[in-house]
TrEMBL record:
Name under which the protein is recorded: Pyridoxal phosphate-dependent decarboxylase family protein
Family, per entry: Belongs to the group II decarboxylase family.
Organism of this sequence: Streptomyces vulcanius
Transmembrane segments: none
Highest taxon listed in the record's lineage: Bacteria
Keywords, comma-separated and alphabetical: Decarboxylase, Lyase, Pyridoxal phosphate
Cofactor: pyridoxal 5'-phosphate
NAD recorded as keyword: no
Lineage summary: Bacteria, Bacillati, Actinomycetota, Actinomycetes, Kitasatosporales
Length: 459
C-alpha cells in the first residue's frame, strides 16, 4: 500500500475528526459568509506527484479553495431555487460516503430497500397513490428526462412502435404541449431525440399568469386528430410559481390521448401544507412526476425523485441486458429504472431528514419560506426604485426596476446586491421585461434575513 494511504488508514478516525472540525467552523459562519464570491479563482496547479496525505489535502483546500466557495447553503442565497442542507441530511450524506454503497440493485446490501422505503415516504408526502412507483435521480433535469422518456415509450405503444428498440425516428413527429415549460424540458427533448422544436407553446391564462389556458390546450389537442401527444403541466413555474389546473388537464384525457407529465420540481412541496395543497390538486392523476429534493427538502446536492404509473414502460426504456446483471423481474433493480447503472445512495440524506423532522418539520419550512417571500414582496413594493411584476403566490418574488427596466440596469442591480455579500439573486425575463427573482427554499432563512436582503436592494 502506498505510504500516504497506509498512514491515512491508520489515522482515519482522526482525519474524520479534522474534517468534522473544519466543516463545523464553515457552517457556523455560514450566515455571515459572503453569499456569493465574485473574485477570480486561483490559477490551475500542477498535478501532485507523491501526494500530501489527507491532512495535507485538507490544509491545502482550506487555504486555496475554501475562501472562494459561495454561501449558497445559507439563508440569503435566493438565486435559482436553492435549498440548504438540514443537519440531519448532512449526517446522512456523510454516512452515504462512508458506506459507499452502489445502489444498482439488491445484491448483498439493504441499501436498495432503504431507497424504496424513502421513495414510498416521499410518495405519501406529495399526495401520490400506490400506483406511482419511483426512484432517486440526480436532479430535476434527469427526473424530467426520465418521465418524458417513459412518455415517449407510451406514444410508441399507442402507435405500435417499440421505441426502445426501433429508436425515436420510428415514431415520426411527437407533439409536446405546455404552457410555461422549464428550460430543462427542452433539454430533455433534445436528449431523447424528440427535438426541442417539438415543444409547442400553448397560450396561458390572461391577467399576469403563467398557468396554461385549459381551453386552449384542449383546442391544441383536438387539432392533433387523435395522434397521441405528451402534455407537460407545471406545478410551480419558475418565475412566479404559477400552477396549472392539474385536475382539469387530467380530465381532458377522457377525450384525447396524451401522456401527462407534471413538472413539480419545487411546487410539489405545496402538498405539505393545508394552506397551499389545493395548488397541486390532481397531481396524483399524472402519468409521471418530477420533484427536486435538493430544492425544498433541503438535502445536499444532488438529489431528486421521479414517479410514474407505468413502471413497465420505464423498465423497457432503461433496462440493462447483461449476463452479469440479469433481467428485470418482479421488483426491478434500480439500474433498470434510471439512466445510471452505478448509483449513489442519494436516498440516505433524505431518509435522515424525514426521520429527523417528519412531515411537520418540512411543512414548517415550506410555510415559513412562503411567509418570508410575501414579506419580501411587500418590502419590494415599498421601495421607490422597484416594482413587483407578479403576485407572490408561494415562495418566489419576481420584481424589476420601477423605471426603464433594461437588461443592463437589472443586471447592475443584481451585481450591486451581490457585491454587498448580503444576497444573491438570479435574472429572468417575465412578460418581456428583464427582472430578478428571489426564491425562498432554505431551512435557515428568517425575517432578519429578509430585512438584510431589502437593505442590500436599497443600498
Amino acid at each position: 500500500m502506498h505510504p500516504a494511504l497506509a498512514a491515512d488508514l491508520a489515522r482515519f478516525p482522526a482525519l474524520l475528526q479534522s474534517a468534522r472540525d473544519f466543516a463545523a467552523g464553515e457552517v457556523s459562519g455560514l450566515a455571515e459568509r459572503p453569499v456569493a464570491h465574485r473574485g477570480a479563482a486561483p490559477d490551475p496547479a500542477v498535478l501532485p506527484g507523491s501526494g500530501t496525505g489527507a491532512e495535507g489535502a485538507l490544509a491545502r483546500f482550506a487555504e486555496r479553495w475554501a475562501p472562494g466557495f459561495s454561501g449558497s447553503a445559507g439563508p440569503r442565497y435566493l438565486g435559482f431555487v436553492t435549498g440548504g442542507a438540514t443537519p440531519a441530511s448532512v449526517a446522512g450524506d456523510w454516512l452515504t460516503a462512508a458506506y459507499d454503497q452502489n445502489v444498482s440493485g439488491d445484491a448483498g446490501s439493504w441499501a436498495a430497500a432503504l431507497e424504496r422505503e424513502t421513495v414510498a415516504w416521499l410518495r405519501e408526502l406529495f399526495g401520490l397513490g400506490e400506483a406511482h412507483s419511483g426512484a432517486f435521480v440526480t436532479g430535476a433535469t434527469v427526473s424530467n428526462t426520465v418521465g418524458l422518456a417513459i412518455g415517449r415509450e407510451w406514444v410508441g405503444e399507442r402507435l405500435g412502435v417499440d421505441v426502445s428498440r426501433a429508436g425515436a425516428s420510428a415514431l415520426g413527429p411527437v407533439d409536446v404541449l405546455s404552457g410555461s415549460p422549464h428550460s430543462s424540458v427542452a433539454k430533455a427533448l433534445s436528449v431523447l431525440g424528440i427535438g426541442r422544436d417539438r415543444l409547442r407553446p400553448v397560450p396561458v391564462l390572461p391577467g399576469n399568469r403563467e398557468a396554461v389556458d385549459v381551453d386552449a390546450l384542449e383546442a391544441a389537442l383536438a387539432a392533433l386528430d387523435g395522434r397521441p401527444a405528451i402534455v407537460v403541466a407545471n406545478a410551480g413555474t419558475v418565475n412566479t410559481v404559477d400552477f396549472d389546473d392539474l385536475r382539469a388537464i387530467a380530465a381532458l384525457r377522457e377525450r384525447y390521448g396524451f401522456w401527462l407529465h407534471v413538472d413539480a420540481a419545487f411546487g410539489g412541496f405545496a402538498a405539505l401544507s393545508p394552506v397551499y395543497d389545493r395548488l397541486v390538486d390532481g397531481l396524483d392523476a399524472a402519468d409521471s412526476v418530477c420533484v427536486d429534493l435538493h430544492k425544498w427538502l433541503n438535502v445536499p446536492y444532488d438529489a431528486a425523485v421521479q414517479f410514474t404509473r407505468r413502471r413497465d414502460l420505464q423498465v423497457r426504456v432503461f433496462h440493462n441486458a447483461s449476463p452479469y446483471l440479469g433481467l428485470p423481474s418482479g421488483e426491478p433493480d434500480f439500474l433498470h429504472l434510471t439512466p445510471e447503472n452505478s448509483r449513489r445512495l442519494r436516498a440516505l440524506p433524505a431518509w435522515f431528514s424525514l426521520v429527523a423532522y417528519g412531515r411537520a418539520g418540512h411543512r414548517e419550512i415550506v410555510e415559513r419560506n412562503a411567509a418570508l417571500a410575501a414579506q419580501l414582496g411587500e418590502g419590494v413594493e415599498a421601495l421607490a426604485g422597484l416594482r413587483l411584476l407578479a403576485p407572490v403566490r408561494l415562495n418566489v418574488v419576481c420584481f424589476t426596476l420601477a423605471d426603464d427596466p433594461t437588461r443592463e440596469g437589472v443586471s447592475a442591480l443584481a451585481e450591486a446586491a451581490a457585491a454587498t455579500g448580503e444576497t444573491f439573486l438570479t435574472p429572468t425575463v417575465y412578460g418581456g421585461v428583464p427582472a430578478l427573482r428571489a426564491a425562498f427554499s432554505n431551512w435557515r432563512t428568517s425575517e432578519a434575513d429578509v430585512a438584510r436582503v431589502l437593505a442590500a436592494l436599497d443600498a
